[in-house]
TrEMBL record:
PANTHER family: E3 UBIQUITIN-PROTEIN LIGASE UBR4. This is Protein purity of essence. Pfam families: E3_UBR4_N (PF19423). It comes from Culex pipiens (House mosquito). Signal peptide: none annotated.
């Protein structure tokens, strides 16, 4: 019966001429009279039943009306008297109830909800600028009033419901003329009536911490926004708005619900985590980006509302929303990366000039290019807002008195991000877009755990592949081709979350080794009671984390260098990249082809080619002029979680962040972390670290001017170099590298004293490599250290003597290596660490080398003179002999100062 009556009432307007309401909403706030404002407020209050229980045919009209009314009221409260505020708040309550009513079990729109935007305006005021792309800024309206002109609205008695009215009068049907309503006399009566209402409300309302308390009533026009917003928030919380909105987000956002179901298949049922690692799957995700972006935007609006009520049910709903959004961000970044790798095709290597030509061949104004740019922007927005939602919900959960809730949230997020990074890496080894699944599963069978180390027997996600398929290979060069700002943002956020988890672990009291022998990893229940070590175990063993992150740091570093090379105009732009494209790792370990290593050693470094040209002041001025445009581009994409475009220093900063994480967080003194680091290090990591270290040394040796490149790049390079050096130093000094890894590191640095060929030693060795060499040697037991130092001296003297005595055909003598001064100083420092008998043996060895060289000098004729490089190497040998004879017993202070 109530529904029938409601339908009849909704079919016709309850005395309201809605056609006269529309012109008011289209006017600006400055051009509206007080009487029009009061009429609109009273219309909303008196038409409450009609607004809340309207005919379905009029839904679009009332949606638009509520949105415009919400904006109108919020604008008007900036100049309002306290006597008028209660009516404004009552009208806002009607609007809030309508908005919540429309979000109960209703399918979400395929665009950001205008009703949620209106609710955000009511609960926040008009203080924010619309930088999130949600249209809630003070400089723009959510919708245009002109769009309501042709919407169907309820008929006033005796009037048609179609078309707009040309009348500019506004009001409820009251029989009075417009001139009477605007007269001073009627205005005075209305003011007194409003004042009576306020007095009655104050006398009958319980006192509390609400917006209304007994106060001196004033007709002075003031900014009542804060009181208005506070009242609206109380209304939203009193009507259980949070529960309504979060359920709507979980159930009505169809795309998020679909992907959340896939996520829960992994976390609850133990199935592999779905990631789009084939081009078909990636294309499907990319095709869904508009729907994902719409759902993500609606979710961001919902979680931005102040409806904090952290009961267990709402915490569970919030967690579902956070993980759904984060999973969509991971899917998007993975899909974009896979498609970028596929687009590169069978190309194995690319020079910077080729990349530049490719960019020049694709004009930015073509439709296809514009469409691609729009898709890139859409993907960037999805990842950016996904990370923003996860962070916002984390901030909400952090305010809970249940401290474990936030830590569980961080744990689940870190696990998902690491799994996504692992899937992206695995997709690079997926030839031809096959269906190899490189995703993580939560439950590991007992058979797969047999024979593994205790650290790897935890029920954590592992790199999995079906039995018939070949084992997974990851191609470093392909990963770099698909690595972009989205992957960098995901990686950066994962490091942030991992750091929080490990910091929480370090607060816990330390315990004995036995307690870490069998740790059950944390589950995926946001309300679960897990210890900090269980959370850390869940994430650290979700992948071969140290190898994965070292791999990621290397790719990010190379990406930075590639971009820097493209962006810097040098004469060497056409030269090929100096790294091998065959670097891969097999299952849980890397495998590098040995054939490419000599070419790597002789080739130019990644960085040296790009510091040849000092930027001119004119170039700096041009860069300064473009900063405003860059800032505008950044604002297009919301927060700063995802940069608007590729910047070399951003990738370099990511690499620095990873090595700092290794050093500070993983490199702590916690028993479990120390054991995890020791068991997780591998020779393949030493290969990558050695290549980076030698590269940095080569660039320093070239003596590039310190002011080369932009300031951001210089600062990023200083941070990167320092983080790598500190990480390696602490790895060695904390005895985290076993003898095998120490030998491997020196071998790939080219300064191993234990190789079989005892007649070869590099002459040009620079400071970072020398620091690693001397640190490893000095930490050896006394006998091993002395034997290694003697071996180094034997190899060096033999190399110098061979260089003097042999006379190979050398087209360009400038290519011959000379002994650099840092190298010579360090060798002398090692010499003084030996005992007297060993020093004498080195002195005799050097003297014997000089005698051998003298035979060559005797055979010199005018027709066959000594070549320049022979004279140079002989002079180095003689300098060593002179020094050893003068300072056999004690080193001079000047040497120690230079070494220091």
């Amino acid at each position: 019966k109530i529904k029938r009556n409601g339908s009849k009432m909704a079919a016709h307007s309850g005395g309201v001429d809605w056609a006269k309401i529309l012109p008011l909403l289209s006017n600006s706030s400055e051009n509206v009279s007080k009487s029009d404002t009061q009429n609109l407020v009273k219309t909303i209050i008196q038409s409450e039943n009609e607004i809340l229980d309207h005919d379905a045919a009029h839904k679009q009209f009332f949606d638009s009306f509520v949105v415009l009314a919400a904006e109108y009221l919020t604008n008007q409260v900036t100049t309002l008297s306290q006597t008028q505020l209660p009516q404004f708040s009552e009208a806002a309550t009607v609007l809030i109830r309508y908005i919540l009513q429309q979000h109960q079990d209703v399918q979400a729109p395929n665009k950001p909800s205008i009703l949620l935007m209106a609710l955000k305006v009511l609960c926040e005021g008009r203080k924010e600028s619309g930088e999130n792309g949600t249209g809630t800024g003070s400089g723009s309206s959510i919708i245009s009033a002109s769009s309501m002109k042709y919407l169907k609205y309820p008929e006033a008695h005796g009037k048609s419901s179609c078309g707009g009215s040309s009348s500019s009068g506004v009001g409820v049907s009251s029989g009075g003329s417009g001139s009477e309503k605007d007269s001073p006399k009627s205005e005075m009566k209305r003011s007194r009536s409003d004042l009576s209402t306020v007095i009655l409300q104050q006398l009958t309302t319980p006192l509390g911490a609400g917006a209304f308390t007994f106060a001196t009533l004033s007709e002075e026009q003031i900014d009542c926004t804060d009181m208005f917003v506070k009242s609206n928030i109380q209304c939203l919380q009193a009507t259980n708005g949070g529960d309504t909105l979060y359920k709507w987000c979980c159930n009505s956002l169809a795309t998020l619900a679909k992907y959340r179901a896939k996520y829960e298949e992994c976390t609850i049922q133990g199935k592999p985590l779905y990631l789009p690692i084939t081009t078909t799957e990636a294309s499907a995700v990319k095709a869904n980006l508009p729907q994902i972006e719409s759902d993500i935007s609606n979710l961001l609006l919902a979680v931005s509302l102040p409806v904090v009520d952290l009961c267990p049910s709402k915490i569970a709903l919030l967690s579902q929303c956070a993980m759904s959004a984060l999973y969509c961000g991971v899917l998007t970044s993975t899909a974009v990366s896979v498609l970028m790798m596929a687009a590169s095709g069978s190309q194995k290597s690319a020079s910077s000039s080729q990349l530049q030509q490719k960019e020049q061949q694709q004009p930015g104004n073509t439709p296809s290019q514009k469409e691609a740019d729009d898709e890139d922007d859409l993907a960037r927005i999805v990842v950016d807002r996904a990370l923003e939602i996860f962070t916002k919900i984390g901030s909400i959960l952090k305010s809970s008195t249940r401290t474990h809730i936030y830590q569980n949230h961080v744990c689940m997020g870190a696990w998902l991000l690491i799994s996504g990074i692992q899937g992206t890496m695995g997709a690079s080894g997926n030839p031809g877009g096959g269906s190899v699944q490189t995703t993580a599963s939560v439950k590991t069978s007992e058979e797969s755990l047999k024979g593994r180390s205790p650290l790897k027997t935890l029920d954590v996600p592992q790199m999995a592949s079906a039995a018939p398929t070949p084992a997974l290979r990851v191609n470093l060069f392909k990963v770099q081709q698909g690595f972009g700002v989205l992957n960098a943002a995901i990686a950066r956020h994962s490091i942030t979350l991992l750091t929080e988890l490990i910091d929480d672990l370090k607060i816990d009291s330390r315990t004995d080794d036995e307690e870490y022998s069998s740790i059950e990893s944390a589950g995926f229940d946001i309300l679960g009671q897990y210890s900090s070590i269980q959370r850390v175990v869940r994430v650290l063993n979700s992948a071969t984390l140290q190898q994965l992150m070292t791999f990621l740091a290397t790719v990010s570093y190379r990406k930075a260098c590639t971009l820097r090379r493209i962006n810097t105009k040098t004469t060497n732009e056409g030269e090929p990249m100096s790294y091998s494209d065959s670097t891969t790792y097999y299952n849980d370990t890397f495998s590098c082809s040995e054939g490419s290593e000599p070419e790597e050693e002789d080739s130019d470094s990644y960085l040296g080619l790009w510091f040849k040209e000092t930027l001119s002041p004119e170039a700096n001025e041009e860069m300064t002029e473009s900063q405003e445009q860059e800032k505008k581009e950044e604002k297009r994409h919301g927060s700063n979680l995802v940069p608007a475009k590729d910047e070399p220093h951003e990738y370099l900063n990511l690499s620095s962040l990873i090595f700092n994480f290794f050093d500070v967080s993983l490199g702590g003194q916690h028993i479990y972390l120390n054991r995890y680091v020791r068991t997780g290090l591998s020779e393949q990591q030493m290969v990558l670290l050695a290549n980076i270290l030698r590269d940095l040394d080569r660039d320093s040796a070239r003596g590039e001017p310190e002011n080369s490149g932009c300031l951001q790049w210089q600062n990023a390079m200083v941070k990167f170099s320092g983080s790598v050096g500190r990480y390696l130093h602490n790895l060695i000094s904390n005895s985290l590298l076993n003898e095998s890894l120490q030998s491997a590191l020196l071998l790939h640095l080219g300064v191993s004293p234990w190789t079989q060929d005892s007649n070869i030693w590099p002459l040009q060795v620079y400071s970072r490599t020398l620091a690693v060499l001397v640190q490893i040697l000095l930490l050896k037991p006394s006998q091993e250290k002395e034997a290694a130092c003697l071996s180094v001296w034997h190899r060096l003297v033999n190399t110098l003597v061979e260089g003097v005595c042999s006379n190979p055909t050398i087209p360009n003598e400038t290519e011959i290596e000379d002994l650099n001064v840092e190298h010579a100083q360090l060798l002398l420092f090692l010499f003084h660490s030996l005992n007297l008998m060993q020093k004498k043996s080195i002195l005799l060895l050097t003297a014997g080398g000089v005698i051998r060289c003298s035979e060559v000098c005797r055979s010199v004729t005018p027709e066959k003179p000594l070549r320049d490089h022979q004279i140079m190497l002989l002079s180095r040998l003689l300098l060593f002999l002179e020094y050893l004879m003068k300072h056999l017993y004690n080193p001079p202070n000047v040497l120690l100062e230079q070494v220091r």
